[in-house]
Amino acid sequence: MRERWKESGFSADRTVVLSEPGGTVGAQTMQVGGTAAYQVGEEVIVFVYRTPVGYLRAIGNGQGKFTITQRPGSPQKYIHSDPAGLELIRGAVSKMNGTGLDDFRRTVQRLIAQKAAQ
Q1: 36 is in which domain, residue-wise?
Q2: How many separate domains does the chain show?
Q3: Is residue 7 situated within a structural domain?
Q4: Which of 26, 47, 56, 70 is the most exposed place for a label (fewest CB within 10 A)?
Q5: Residue 91 and residue 77: Cα distance in Å, rounded?
C-alpha cells in the first residue's frame, strides 16, 4: 500500500489484506460475478468495507475497485473501473473512467472532508 486517503478504522500497518470471493487453487478456479479481481503488479484504488466476520472487501461487489493506468508517452495517471458482471451499473461507473488520478484523489478527499464536517 502506498497511501491511505482515509485513516479511520485501520491499523498503522501498510499491508492490507483483501478477501474477495472466488479464486484459483491449482487447476480449480471459482469466479463470482461482480466481485473484484486483482492481478499481480496491478496498481489500484480500492474503497473497502469490513464484513461481519472481519474480512475487507471492495464495496459494491467490485464497484469500489479502480485500476490506475497510464497512457503511452504520458506521465499522467488515470483511473479505470470495470465491474465485471454488473451490467446494470456499467453506464454510471463508466462516466468516471479516464478521470485523472490527481483529480480523482482531490474529489474523494473533498467528499471525505465534507462527510466528516457533517
Answers
A1: 23-117
A2: 1
A3: no
A4: 26
A5: 22
